Backbone:
C-alpha cells in the first residue's frame, strides 16, 4: 500500500511535541506541505527539513496558535489554506490532576473543554468551507481511550471532552459527507511519554505498576506517537475514502 501526500496541504494542531509533532513529521515525510500549529511555537524550530520520499519533497511551516481562539484559527486558515487535511491533535489535561468533583472549579473545567472540544469544533468550522468548495477533504480529531471508557487520569473534564470530541466527529461526518469530506477520530491508548503532564501519573505507578500496565496491553508495549501518526496517514488516504464518523482505537489491543 503506497500513500503519498505530495501536493497536499495539511494543518496539524498541537504540533510542538508528542503525537502532534510526529503527525506533522509523518505527513511531511510523505510529501505534504504541513502547517504545524501550537501555542508553544518556540518548541518547533527543530521540525523543518523533514525527510521526504524522493520526488515528494515535503515541508513544515510553524505557526504560533492558540487553538482556543476561534478567530485566530480562522485567520490562519484564510492565510495558509485551503487545506486538504486538518488534524486536531492539540488537547490534553492542561497540567491538571484528579480532584473530587466538589473541588473542580469552573476554570478547571473550562480550560480542558476549550482546548479539546471547542478547538476541535473551531478547526472543523474553519477548514470546512475550503474543503466543500473543492469537493473533498479529511478532518481527523485525536481523541483518546478516555472518550470510550473511564479516563485513567480521573479528571472529569478530560473524559467528558474526549467523549464530546467523538460526538462531534459523528455529527460532522453526517453533515460533511455529501461534500466528499470524511471526519474521523483516533483514540490512542495510554501513552505517558507524549507529554510532561502525564509523566507524574506514570512515575507514581512504580516499576511494578508500570509492568502491570504493559502486561495488560495485548502487544505488550506502550504506544508511540508514530503509531498514531500511522493511523492518521491511513485515515487521510484514498484507502479510507468510505470511512467516516468512526473512532479508530490505537491501543495495542483490547
Residues:
Amino acid at each position: 500500500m503506497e500513500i503519498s501526500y505530495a501536493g497536499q496541504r495539511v494543518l496539524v494542531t498541537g504540533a510542538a511535541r508528542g503525537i502532534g509533532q510526529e503527525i506533522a513529521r509523518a505527513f511531511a515525510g510523505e510529501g505534504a506541505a504541513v502547517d504545524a500549529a501550537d501555542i508553544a511555537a518556540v518548541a518547533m524550530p527543530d521540525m523543518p527539513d523533514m525527510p521526504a520520499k524522493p520526488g515528494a519533497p515535503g515541508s513544515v511551516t510553524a505557526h504560533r496558535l492558540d487553538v482556543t481562539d476561534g478567530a485566530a484559527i480562522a485567520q490562519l486558515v484564510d492565510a495558509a489554506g485551503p487545506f486538504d487535511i486538518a488534524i486536531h491533535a492539540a488537547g490534553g489535561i492542561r497540567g491538571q490532576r484528579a480532584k473530587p468533583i466538589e473541588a473542580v472549579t469552573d476554570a478547571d473545567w473550562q480550560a480542558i473543554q476549550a482546548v479539546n472540544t471547542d478547538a476541535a469544533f473551531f478547526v472543523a468550522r474553519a477548514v470546512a468551507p475550503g474543503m466543500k468548495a473543492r469537493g473533498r477533504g479529511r478532518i481527523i480529531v485525536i481523541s483518546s481511550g478516555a472518550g470510550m471508557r473511564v479516563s485513567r487520569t480521573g479528571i472529569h473534564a478530560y473524559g467528558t471532552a474526549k467523549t464530546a470530541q467523538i460526538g462531534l466527529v459523528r455529527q460532522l461526518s453526517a453533515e460533511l459527507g455529501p461534500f466528499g469530506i470524511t471526519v474521523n477520530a483516533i483514540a490512542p491508548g495510554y501513552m505517558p511519554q507524549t507529554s510532561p503532564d502525564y509523566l507524574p501519573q506514570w512515575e507514581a505507578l512504580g516499576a511494578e505498576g508500570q509492568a502491570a500496565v504493559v502486561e495488560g496491553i495485548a502487544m505488550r508495549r506502550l504506544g508511540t506517537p508514530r503509531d498514531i501518526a500511522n493511523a492518521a496517514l491511513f485515515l487521510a488516504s484514498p484507502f479510507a475514502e468510505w470511512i467516516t464518523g468512526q473512532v479508530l482505537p490505537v491501543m495495542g489491543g483490547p
Observations:
- The first helix runs from residue 18 to 29.
